[in-house]
Design brief:
The chain is α/β, with parallel strands linked by helices. Helix content is 38%, strand content 16%. It has a 6-stranded mixed sheet. The radius of gyration is 16 Å and the shape is globular.
Length: 154
Amino acid sequence: LHAADHFVQRGAFTQSSGREMTTKLLDRPQRPTAIFAANNFSRTPYADSDFYASGPETFLALIRDAELVVGNSFHGLAFSLIFEKELFIFGRRTKPGANSRMQDLLSLCGLNDRMIFPKAYNPDKVAPIPYDKVRQMLESRINDSKTFLKEAVG
């Protein structure tokens, strides 16, 4: 599991740098009912249930069962896309390049507006994710990757 992937019974949310943003997201009309946290590094005091140091099965189940996922890990983003969940990714301000994989994947999917930084975000201006388009793009890239691997392996 990765730090700061926090989930709500009908959504998922992040930790310290995103605590204020989490509150803002919870105040939206389609408000989730309970925050579930999955974090390897520390407990999450504002979560209703904390799956501290849980395994990958729990991590995947939390994403699979969420309506909204908010976190700051590449794997949280990747599995949210696979499970076709509404999502927000909090940008990390820890070191240069810390967000590059997440930004690249979001850009590839046409979802640049889903990378958010707490002080510069308005949750009311984001439309639902057009997963029909995202699915087509991902399938195309997956097929390209399979072709490359088949040709490389022989």
